[in-house]
Amino acid sequence: MAQYSILITGAAGYIGGSILSALVSLEDQHNIFATVRTFKQADAVVYQHPGITVLQVDVTHEKEIEHIISTHEIDIVIQAASSIDSRLSIQLISALSKRKQRNGGKNVWFIHTSGLGGFCVQNGWPVEEREDTGPIFETEKRLMETFPIRKTDVEITEYAEVMGVDSLIVVLPIIYGKGTGAWNQLSINLPIYVKSIIQSGRARKFAENTKVSASHISDLVSLYTLLVSKIIAREDIPRGKEGYYFALAHRIEGWEVAESLSGAAKARGLIADSTVEVWESDASAAEAMGVPEMFVQVLWNSGDEMIARRPFSLGWSPKWDRKRFIDNIDDEIAAVLELGEAKSSLVSSLFKFAGV
């Protein structure tokens, strides 16, 4: 089997770091490279994975990215750094295209990490377009100006096609569980909510008992490694406008999560009363959880009706379901008590995007 060179951006993050750990542990060893933003992050990743090349770089600099992909002869890029702004992805795709021209036309791959918020009815997604084998790209293109994640997905897919780069989009629901990366092991959604419960002494819920899709971090990572293994084996998998992979392992209900976390927090003596109250408004929820108001529903209450078929058709087999999640809900509290808060720039980027 030919050896591949794989670059993971955002390798100090919750998603990127966990993907990196999984790829390093694969039996078929390939050349793995990782980008991080700071020297401290680089030191942490090198300490955990001494056998890989860690690059401390500003990935917004086009020339630096082009140099990295050219010098290290990168075949596959897993973009785990940002799903809102398309500019970084466009630069990575451009660099991959030039790499393809120099390697005699051998396929190069770009795996983008997107979010489920763009596929929720309350964010403008049509009810009738639910299956991932349907006209997902065409619908996103028609609605691309109404939600930033959709616009980014469309721009990436179209540009990759023009540049001769094979692209895949992995769509993330709520991701939970302690990560396995070297720097940040906490997700955003549940840890922020857990902290709001502890700090206010009370769990709260939204007025509507919304169902949302979710995946444990280990199951999400298994999807990325499955896709990489298919690429390396040169299997003919859906790509480009057909290459959407929704990492939807199971659904959870907002009220059940709130009540379960409240009960677990009370059992630990962190709160005195496990009664769950209703948020007065999105503004009060935003203030308690420290995010811009415009993203409250997107992060915690954007119910979806999407049906994921494509990942399962490739052999994806999640190990966590709703029952296992609820039975182990205390893990989310334990992770927050151990680690504090996520070492992530996501929340600050949300404020920047909201102009706050």
From TrEMBL:
One of its GO terms (cellular component) is cytoplasm. SUPFAM superfamilies: NAD(P)-binding Rossmann-fold domains. Pfam families: NmrA (PF05368). It comes from the Eukaryota. GO terms for molecular function: aldehyde dehydrogenase (NAD+) activity. Residues 5-80 form the NmrA-like domain. This is NAD(P)-binding protein. It comes from Aaosphaeria arxii CBS 175.79.
